[in-house]
Design brief:
It is built from 11 helices and 12 strands. A hairpin with a 3-residue loop joins strand 3 and strand 4. It folds into 2 domains: 97 residues, no CATH class; 210 residues, Rossmann fold (3-Layer(aba) Sandwich), CATH 3.40.50.410. The longest helix is centred in the first third of the chain and has 22 residues. By secondary structure, the protein is of the alpha/beta class.
Length: 330
């Protein structure tokens, strides 16, 4: 494997150099033959033709290895132990039908996605995970240090991700909490993004679990408290089993309760979309002292070997005398 493959094209110069040296030698030999035999020339000048040829071969081979070194060959493997420091943030996102309400334009879900997209961009250096929920919950994006991928997953969220209707906040929080159990206190946080409407009675149990594992839950409320209809198609709105139009309201009381009980903070996104950046400040304040040891296997650079061989061959070529020694003349 070569890192700088473009330098390999220089290898094409070596045959041309060899042809030039051969041509130069042949022309000299031809000129000498006009006045004396080549044997007489060797005896007269004391030049060792074999050494002359070897000297040129060594020079060409040294150039070959220099070019190989320039291309930075890599082979073999090297295992590196890397210590990384990062906090873990799990975003728990409501994608239930009520998030399609248009009290925030174009709707609650799109405003939440746009706001969180800006937020995640500032999470670089941390690990991010995304859990989505409605009547059930699952991981949309497993915990990762790749914030770009996390953002891409976020932008694809829609109510069809969880076809089961309803809003089960506790199921989503349970998934998020289970993923952070082994992470030290202060190096983790859960961000719950929802309108707060919950049809599950297990919320209290999950709050106690969060307190047990010392995990703070920050809540972001989407929508307004006055209430609004949920569109299902043009000029049609969601109705309940009795045929009455469903009205969805932001349940601030529930969200405030979750954040207060777990030591987090409640933010109403309806008041100001810039308020979400409070979460960014919180993320930056998280403890990143948790060391995560990972192994990275890399191909090791080996250009030094080829450069050393080229240097040795060049030195030998430079110091190799083309003249016969005195003992060879005797």
């Amino acid at each position: 494997m070569f890192e700088n493959k473009e330098f390999l094209i220089l290898l094409l110069l070596i045959p041309f150099m060899a042809i030039f040296l051969f041509y130069f030698f042949y022309k000299k030999k031809k000129n000498i033959s006009k006045f004396m035999t080549f044997k007489m020339f060797n005896e007269t000048t004391g030049i060792n033709i074999n050494r002359y040829k070897l000297k040129n071969i060594l020079l060409l081979v040294s150039i070959f290895f220099v070019i190989i070194a320039l291309s930075n060959p890599k082979f073999g493997v090297k295992t590196i132990i890397v210590s990384k420091k990062a906090a873990t943030i799990v975003i728990v996102m409501d994608v239930s039908k009520s998030m399609l309400a248009e009290d925030l334009k174009p709707n609650r879900l799109e405003i939440a996605k746009a706001s969180l997209s800006n937020l995640i961009a500032g999470f670089k250096g941390n690990k991010i995970g995304i859990v989505v929920f409605a009547g059930s919950a699952f991981w949309k994006c497993p915990i990762t240090a790749d914030v770009v991928s996390a953002n891409n997953f976020l932008n694809t969220l829609n109510p069809d991700d969880v076809p089961l209707g309803g809003t089960k906040i506790s199921k989503a929080l349970d998934l998020a909490l289970n993923s952070t159990v082994d992470i030290p206190e202060g190096a983790k946080a859960i961000i719950l993004v929802t309108d707060g409407e919950d049809d599950d009675s297990g919320l209290h149990v999950l709050i106690e679990k969060a307190k047990k594992h010392k995990t703070k839950i920050y809540t972001i409320g989407i929508g307004n408290t006055e209430g609004t209809k949920i569109p299902v198609s043009n000029n049609e709105y969601m109705k309940d089993e009795k045929g009455d139009t469903v009205i969805t309201r932001l349940d601030e009381q529930t969200l405030q309760y979750i954040s207060d009980e777990t030591g987090g903070e409640y933010i109403n996104l309806s008041e100001s979309q810039d308020s979400i950046f409070k979460i960014l400040q919180i993320a930056h304040s998280l403890d990143k002292s948790k060391d995560e040891i990972s192994k990275e296997v890399k191909r090791e650079e080996q250009y030094q070997i080829f450069l050393f061989i080229a240097f040795i061959l060049f030195c030998v070529s430079f110091y190799l005398s083309i003249f016969k020694r005195e003992d060879e003349n005797e």
